[in-house]
Amino acid sequence: MSISLVILAAGQGSRMQSDLPKVLHPLASVPLLVHAMRAGRVLEPQRVVIVVGHGAEQVAHVVAQEDDQAEIVVQDQQLGTAHAVAQARDALADAAGDVVVLYGDTPFIGARTLEALCAARTEFDIVVLGFHAADPGRYGRLVADGNRLERIVEFKDATEAERQIPLCNSGVICAGRARLFDLIAQVGNDNAAGEYYLTDIIALARAQGLSAGLVICDEAETLGINTRAELAAAEAAFQASARARALEDGVTLQAPDTVIFAQDTVIGRDSIVEPYVVFGPDVTVESGAHIRAFSHLEGAHVSRGAVVGPYARLRPGAELAEDVRVGNFVEIKNAQLGEGAKVNHLSYVGDADIGARANLGAGTVTCNYDGVFKHRTEIGEGAFIGSSTMLVAPVRVGADALTASGSVITSDVPEGALALGRASQTNKPGLGKRLMGRLRAQKAALKKD
Ligand code: UD1
Ligand code: CA
Predict the structure, then answer these.
(1) pLDDT value of position 354
(2) Which ligand is nearest to the CA of 168?
C-alpha cells in the first residue's frame, strides 16, 4: 500500500516563549520536526507534505535540508487541524493509497506503532492512534467500544462524563486519501474553540456508515512538546533511552548519565565511551574505538581501534581511519587522517589530508584560512611534523618528510626532505650571564634610593 505523509507544523507554539518556531527547537541535536520526518520514513512514503505557517521560510529551509523531495504547503491562518490537513489536498491530488497525519511537535512515534496503524487499515476505513494517559488533561477523548471508534470529543467540548474517559487521541491518523479529504471538506467550526477539528471526521465517517478503529500505543510515543519544560523532559527521556540502547548494543559507558547522544549517533560494539562525552549530529563510531573523557564530536567518523581525547574536538568532516590517535586539546575539521596517524597534543587540523602513520607534533597548526578562502594541507604517509609547525595552506608535505620544530612552512616539502623554516640560532658566549648581572645591579641600586 502506498503512503503519503502529512506533517502538521504550522503552529506558533506560543508557550515556548520563543522567536524560533516550535517545531525547529532541537531535541537530541535535531529539530523536533526532523524527528517526525525520520519517524515517518519507516512507512517508505511516496510523498511527504509538510504544512507550515509560523516561521514558514525557516521551517521550509530545515525541511529541504532533511529531505529535498518533501513538499511544503503553507497554512496562512491556523484555523484548526482539519484546516491544516486540507492545505495538503491539492499537493496530494494525484497520490494513490493512504494518508498518514503526523504532528511536527511529536518526536517519539515508534516504527512499529506506525506500521500497526497502517496495517489496521485492512480492517477499518479510518484508523486513529490512541493511548491511555496517566493524566488525560486536555487531550481529546476517544469514545470507543473495544477497538471500534465512535467519535472523538475535544476536552473543551466534552461533558463531565466524557472527561472521565482515560483513552486519549494522539492526533495520528490514517485513512484513504480521497476519503480523508472528502470527510475534511465536511468539517465545520461550530465548537468551543471555533476551530476546524480533524477529530470531527470520525463522527462524520460513522454517520455515513464507514468504520473507524483504534490502535493503542505507549503514552511516551505520543509525547507532544508545548513548553521548554516539556522539551527538557523529552530530552531527558531521549538521553535515558539512547544510553540504555548503547549499553544493550555492547558499548561500555563508564558514566552513562554524563554522555549526551544525538538522534542519529551510531556507536559500534566494544567501543568505550568515557565520562562527559558529547555526540552532536551525524557521528559514527565503529567497533572497538575509544572515546576518552570530555570530548565533543559532530559530523565525524571514527574507525575501529582509534582513540579520541581526552579533551578532543571532532568537527564536521573529521574522518579518522583505523588506529588513529587524536589527543588532548586537538581540533579536527574537514580532514582525513590515514590509518595509524597521530595528532596527540594541542593541534588544529582543518581542511587537510593526513597520510597513514604521519605524526603531527604538539602545537601543529594548519593555517587553512586566509580571511576569505579556505585552503587544503596535504601531508604524506609517514611524514613527521615537528612541534609547533605552522603549515600555511595551500601546502603539501611529501611522504616521509620532516619539518623542523617551530617551522612556518609556506612552500611544498618534497618527499623525504627536511624542511627548516625558522630563523637560525646564534649563541653569544657569556652574554646571558652578563646581562642578568647588569639587571640585578640596577634593581639593587633602585632599592637603596
Ligand atoms: C490535538 C487534537 C487532540 C489530541 C491532541 C494530541 C484536534 C482538534 N485535537 O489537540 O484531540 O488529543 O492534538 O496532542 O485535532 N496545527 C497546525 N495548524 C492548525 C492547528 C494545529 O499546523 O491550524 C498543528 C500544531 O502546530 C500542532 C498540531 O497541529 O503541531 C496539533 O495542534 P494543537 O493545536 O496543538 O492541537 P491540540 O489542541 O493539542
Ligand atoms: Ca498540542
Answers:
(1) 98
(2) 1
* pLDDT, tens digit, 9 for 90 and up, residues 366-402: 999 999 999 999 999 999 999 999 999 999 999 999 9
Domain interval for residue 12? 3-222
Q: For this structure, is 345 an active site residue?
A: yes
Q: How many structural domains comprise the chain?
A: 2
Is 434 part of any domain? no
Give yes or no for residue 397 CB within 6 A of ligand 1: no
CB of 103 within 6 A of ligand 1: the answer is yes
Is 377's C-beta closer than 6 angstroms to any atom of ligand 1? no
Q: Of 222, 255, 270, which marks where a domain is finished?
A: 222
Shared domain for 278 and 136, answered yes or no, is: no
Could you read off the pLDDT of 171-194 as tens digits, one per residue?
Answer: 999 999 999 999 999 999 999 999
Q: Nearest C-alpha to atom 3 of ligand 1 is from which residue?
A: 140
Is the CB of 75 inside a 6 Å radius of any atom of ligand 1? Answer: yes
Model confidence at 12: pLDDT above 90: no
Nearest CA to ligand 1 atom 38: 139
In this prediction, residue 191 carries a pLDDT of 96
Q: What is the CATH number of the domain that holds 90?
A: 3.90.550.10
The Cα–Cα gap between 354 and 337 comes to 5
**Dist. CA 154–CA 146, nearest whole Å:** 20
- Cell numbers standing for residue 403: 619539518
**Domain membership flag for residue 437:** no
- Measured between alpha carbons, how far is 238 from 317 in angstroms, rounded to an integer? 26
Query: Averaged over 340-348, what is the pLDDT?
Result: 98
Ligand 1 pocket test target in 23, 81, 180 with most atoms within 8 Å of CB: 81
Distance from the first to the final alpha carbon of the chain: 99
CA 123 to chain CA mean position, Å: 37
pLDDT at 1: 78
